[in-house]
Amino acid sequence: HSIICIVGARPNFMKIAPIMAALNALKPALEVTLVHTGQHYDVAMNEQYFQALGIPAPDINLEVGSGTHATQTAEVMCRFEAALEGKNPTAILVVGDVNSTIACALVATKKGIPVIHVEAGLRSFDRGMPEEINRVLTDQISDMLFTTEPSGKDNLLREGVAAQRIHFVGNVMIDTLKNNLPRAISARKIASDAGREDFLPEDGKYAVLTMHRPSNVDDEVVLASLINTVVSISNQLPVIFPLHPRTKSMLHKFGLEKLLDTPNILLLPPMGYLEMLGLMQGATVVLTDSGGIQEETTALGVPCITLRENTERPITVEQGSNTIAGQNPQAIMAIFDDVMRTGGKAGRIPEYWDGRASNRIADLIAIEFGIPRAS
Ligand code: UD1
């Protein structure tokens, strides 16, 4: 038996690490290989993650790089199809919702190769979001679907996915979080390494901001308004802001960098995994438009303000520490003020976010494909 695992973009890396480790425990009956599509290629966006998480070097790198959605998706498809030439894997395994996820799933299913989708069934119900299209389509052509929260199964059943294909296993991102928390790097060290040992106040309190969704950063008026809101927040609490390449280039394009040139905002390059973990863990509050960070803050019990109108991860609001704020400055400030006054939502840990999701996945894959256990 053999399974080809696929990664492409940053949020895939922390999901694949524990899955590959769990699948590798099925050796020698199972051969596990890794294909990197090259959707993310900067050192800060990928190599740092491979190193920090101990992900094996990819067996194949398709080196697709950036492009329009059509170009990027099509390039992955063409190159992945060629890479499958002469191979007859038992299945391919994709994670998440990036362009590489749908591209590889589509190639494999048309070749008659079963597709395993980890993190299936999440829905924002916002088709303006490229990831939502990727999620809906990938789930329709997947053979085994692993969900992170109960909403996933409800969504899949409503879309006609057969119940026996759906498996609620929990959240592999939280496996990675638990494995790496002891090695997390503190904000104080990060600020000091950036030459700003004076950045954090005596009490050590700070906010973390991440932002990269096209809906937040590609429109000048929206981006300017969000940045002005962040500046207001920084008057009360210092803000650490690692910049995604897309956001950096948009700030430059619209000439908005100067707004951020204040002593209470620390701009940083994209952080490695252990740095980001430490930043979140020590934060008073995290502001983000990321999907994964909504989950990680829930697992850490740190209040999260989501700068989006919706979430595909409703459990982080229902049970976790997340609040949906949208883009409106008053709404964001009201939630921020509440966090400052009350400490914000603590929440509780959702079911199966226990660090064992990858083991459940490997067990179910072994049963599904009849892969014998080593002992
Ligand atoms: C992608 C995912 C998004 C995920 C995000 C996390 C899709 C549709 N989107 O968005 O779901 O949350 O990754 O980071 O797949 N760039 C670099 N270096 C890189 C990669 C990108 O400079 O290593 C720049 C390029 O200018 C590129 C832009 O960032 O055009 C966007 O990259 P792309 O991979 O298209 O999408 P992301 O916005 O990163």
From TrEMBL:
GO molecular function ontology, one term from the record: UDP-N-acetylglucosamine 2-epimerase activity
Family matches, as CDD domains: GTB_UDP-GlcNAc_2-Epimerase
Record keywords: Isomerase
Catalytic class of the enzyme: isomerase
EC number of this enzyme: 5.1.3.14
Domain UDP-N-acetylglucosamine 2-epimerase: 27-365
Domain of life: Bacteria
Similarity comment: family membership: Belongs to the UDP-N-acetylglucosamine 2-epimerase family.
PANTHER family in UniProt: UDP-N-ACETYLGLUCOSAMINE 2-EPIMERASE
Protein name: UDP-N-acetylglucosamine 2-epimerase (Non-hydrolyzing)
Species for this entry: Undibacterium piscinae
